[in-house]
Design a protein that fits this description.
Blueprint lengths: L2 H34 L7 H23 L4 H19 L5 H19 L1 H24 L3 H5 L2 H4 L8 H7 L9 H21 L6 H23 L3 H34 L6 H36 L3 H20 L9
Helix pairs in contact: 1-2, 1-3, 2-3, 4-12, 5-10, 5-11, 9-10, 9-11, 9-12, 10-11, 11-12, 11-13
Amino acid sequence: MTGEETETIRLRSRKFRVEREADWQKLETLLDRALSRSAKALDSSELLELPRAYRSTLSALSVARETSLDKDLIGYLESLCTRAYFFIYGTRSTFQERVAQFFTRDWPRAVRSIWRETAMSAFITVISMFAAFMLTQSDPDWFYSFMPADLAGDRTPAASTESLRSGLYDSGDDTGLSVFAASLFTHNARIAIFAFALGFAFCVPTVLLLAYNGCVLGAFIALYAERGLGFELGGWLLIHGVTELFAIILAGAAGLKIGWTVISPGEATRLTAAAEAGKSASMVLAGVVVMLAIAGLLEGFGRQLITQDFIRYLIAAASAFVWGVYFYGRNFQVSVR
């Protein structure tokens, strides 16, 4: 490019700037004030002026690119338009607003979107529980096949009925079912995390973990039911188990969602489809962590402080009602995929 051509471009750029620079400066001033403080720093007239100045600057950028004006001017306009775009169209919610949005919209919506996988996860858990229960009832030796020795402790078919009964109403010391409850919570939390994390392997590990967890629970219930303590154990388990087991079922459902997407990605590639499924599934898992924390509080305080079976069942029923309404009571529609 000759010196004369360069000078011509500079003159054109200078003239272009003189004609339109007022809008750019106005936009830059408004952005600096709003971004340094907040949108509340602008009055109503300035809020109306902001998108107009943005459109004018965007138009100027388009003209500058088409007429090949100097690069410095184009770079300045690109930077200014980018700032304006993210301010006008980007999200500016606070941390508190994002947390509120997660609990009021994002999490329930993510759970509703995997209702089929949730139903399958619950079915696998229940059918495994029932199978282990029936097998242990027919032959107590099956208990040792389903229940890990470190988790069972002294709660085995060899234990006396009275020791099993007394453990259901202990005061929360470091013996009896207090240690078992803490171990069971850790066990269930581990199952939930792995059921989600291993779902990508074509659902197989998730299904096996859900079935294994159901078998453990079924064998444990059979042990107490055989001694006539089924009702009492139900209250002890369900006061925190409604929340805890539902959390595991949801984690398993999230894993099944990812795994099934890998098996049948549709028109997208497996990697793309799995990444898309992982967005909603990870939202579910984030909520599962919250549910496990709530279950831990119910287990740690409710089980120790509340020893009446009726009240335990009442709390369990209230928990089931609250979770049901929270997830499925609002705008729940069954869609055909």
